[in-house]
Amino acid sequence: MKSPDKSAAAHDATTDAAIARKAALIALDWGTTSLRAYLFDAAGKVIATRMSTAGIMNLPVPAEAGGFDAAFDEACGVWLGEAPALPVLAAGMVGSAQGWVQAPYVETPASAQALVAGIVRVRAACGVDVAVVPGVLEPGALPNVMRGEETQIFGALAATGDEAVPQTALIGLPGTHAKWVVVEGERIARFYTFMTGEIYAALCAHTILGRTMKHPAEPDTAAYLRGVSVAREQGCVGLLATAFSSRTLGLTGQLAADEQPDYLSGLVIGHELAGLEAALARRDVSLAGCAPQLIGAEALCERYRLALGAFGCGAHLVRHATEHGLWRIAMQAGLVAPR
Amino acid sequence: MKSPDKSAAAHDATTDAAIARKAALIALDWGTTSLRAYLFDAAGKVIATRMSTAGIMNLPVPAEAGGFDAAFDEACGVWLGEAPALPVLAAGMVGSAQGWVQAPYVETPASAQALVAGIVRVRAACGVDVAVVPGVLEPGALPNVMRGEETQIFGALAATGDEAVPQTALIGLPGTHAKWVVVEGERIARFYTFMTGEIYAALCAHTILGRTMKHPAEPDTAAYLRGVSVAREQGCVGLLATAFSSRTLGLTGQLAADEQPDYLSGLVIGHELAGLEAALARRDVSLAGCAPQLIGAEALCERYRLALGAFGCGAHLVRHATEHGLWRIAMQAGLVAPR
What is the 3-state secondary structure (H, E, C) of A13-46? Predict the structure, then answer.
């Protein structure tokens, strides 16, 4: 009798094979620190996923030694072994200058069709062509770039029912480099990048602010909203000044050590939203009058939803934007047949 | 015949002794990363200095093992050996909770007399009393603290002749945690802290922005002023957004790798000044109408002077503020007789 491990593995292989026979598309969200592979059926439903840490800056085998092929085979090899003719689409930093093949930016205003027209293909060592979606560039005095978010945006725009997004929309994508995207007439018209996640991490790990912090067992919503409120009121004096209060309020006994992490989080997110509000106001758009959609990790989007509430703004989380976006672009590119 | 090294050392020891006999005061600027000791004559002129890296966070011997005494002896032992009755005054982080003795903050509005009243003494192992100057706290919803800068401020206020500072004044102290201090009626009335130096260093060393930078052979004034200008125009969208342009302008070929360090420097200093301008405006004070004094390292103060020019503001560097401040406080505290 086979050992339980071998039985389980054999069972998984059988299951994978059965699933792969129903598939119509493989699509990859291939970023800097992780790779997520989706298997879709012909109706655009995700029937399997595989996730690894093989982001482009984290390949187990160096790129020069075939690292992209190795990561691709590890993620998709079983599916392609069963269904070698499956089309493959990839979006994210895999199309950057440090990626598998460079898919040059498409400029704003960027439609889904423009993205499709900008797709670049790379032939994997196993013989499969991988279609790579380009990022978007907004040129100008202060240019902006995105890579991966464009796919999520068109996924959010394609949603039907409760999650449908109006065709002129403000969409927020919280993260290491948070993006705020203005969509007009189904095109990415302009966008802003806030280095909020990366700067928060640097403040905690590499400045005096982290030295008095203790990490709480649970996130402290009251401390978080206090930080948002300070940023909102002191928006124009700026983060360089308000950040210091995370320390001084501790020195004066007005903010406990285990409140400081969430207070500082509220401060930086509050400054981001104050900056967004100011940027929109320059174009006579009121943030409080918007109903933004949020795409991203659920806990982080919830933080943003709370903070937006303090700015008079009701936001909704959009789920599965990545999958919907990959499917939509695959359809528009003719990789799969529309139903 | 003695070796040249031994002759030189013997000569220095003789010179030190001769100098010490003319001295009236030892005063220490004892901060986090360095210690500077000044020897004054009875007219308040600095006749010798000694500098070491034995800041309170950098003591060669741990504090618990007598590190403060060891650093003090190393800095001042020769002088005290010759003139053991010399009074000793110290200002800076040496009076903080992590220092040799805690000299509790004096609250704003803070006069020189209030500082003197707040002096705390610590007895060194060698039997000498060291008088430690307190820092200043501005209480409130967003409190602020300084320790060491108060001494420099009163040094600048005490200056005569060309460097005299009006009794209602705005004084800037660039640095890791830049301070902007409003003096009214010879009291420190209120002040602001901007974490500009520390955050700039963290952005360069610990975010994506540093990865495309090359350090130029000479500072690039044009790139610096470009950054100041961007911050001035985009003040309210904030540093979280504008910082990203150091990278994106590189990606689009609009900013060379060896321009990025000074561009980002101009950006952060520009945001600091935009924040200061906004804070002053809330109290109906126009930054452009001020003639601020700058105290600090010369090259850094020069950067600030240039940036202030872009804000319509003419600034002057004040020299020797630390020494003048230590002498003034020593006189006011009765450690030395006035002349």
Answer: HHHHHHHHHCEEEEEEEECCCCEEEEEEECCCCE
Q: For chain B, positions 159-178, list CB contacts with chain A under 8 A.
A: 177
Q: Which residue has the tokens 């009236």?
A: B24
For residue A20, name the pLDDT band (cuts at 50, 70, 90). confident
Q: Which chain A residues are closer than 8 Å to B177 by Cβ?
A: 208, 244
Which among B39, B40, B44, B69 has a CA at the least distance from the CA of B54? B69
The 10s digit of each residue's pLDDT in B114-162 is: 999 999 999 999 999 999 999 999 999 899 999 999 999 999 998 755 5
DSSP A46-113: EEEEEEES--TTS-SS-GGGTHHHHHHHHHHHHHHHH-TT--EEEESGGGSTTSSS--PPEESSB-HH
Disruptive mutation site among B181, B200, B237 for chain A (greatest number of A CBs within 10 Å): B237
DSSP string, A63-76: GGGTHHHHHHHHHH
What pLDDT does A156 receive?
Answer: 93
Task: Give me the residues of B, 101-160, that contact A with CB < 8 A.
Answer: 137, 139, 141-145
Q: Do B279 and A237 touch (CB under 8 A)?
A: yes
Angle between helices B260-281 and B196-206 (to 10 degrees): 150
Interface of A with B in 245-304 (CB under 8 A): 245, 248-249, 251-252, 254, 268, 271-272, 274-276, 278-279
pTM: 0.91
Number of Cβ within 10 Å of residue A25's Cβ equals 21
Question: Chain B residues with CB inside 8 Å of A180's CB?
Answer: none
Q: Which of B325, B4, B300 is nearest to B136 (CA)?
A: B325
Contact state of A241 with B208 under an 8 Å Cβ cutoff: no
Inter-chain contact B248–A139, Cβ cutoff 8 Å?
A: no
Kindly list the residues from chain A whose CB atom is less than 8 angstroms away from the CB atom of residue B254. Answer: 143
Tens-place pLDDT, residues A134-192: 999 999 989 999 999 999 999 999 875 555 666 679 999 999 999 999 999 899 999 99
Query: Which residues are CB-contacts of B289 (< 8 A; sequence separation ≥ 6)?
Result: none
Beta bridge partners of A120: A132
ipTM of model: 0.90
pLDDT computed for residue B2 by the predictor: 46
Do A146 and A160 touch, CB atoms closer than 8 A?
no
In the sheet where B169-173 sits, what is the strand order? B187-194, B178-184, B169-173, B293-294, B316-317
Determine the average pLDDT of the residues in A268-293: 95
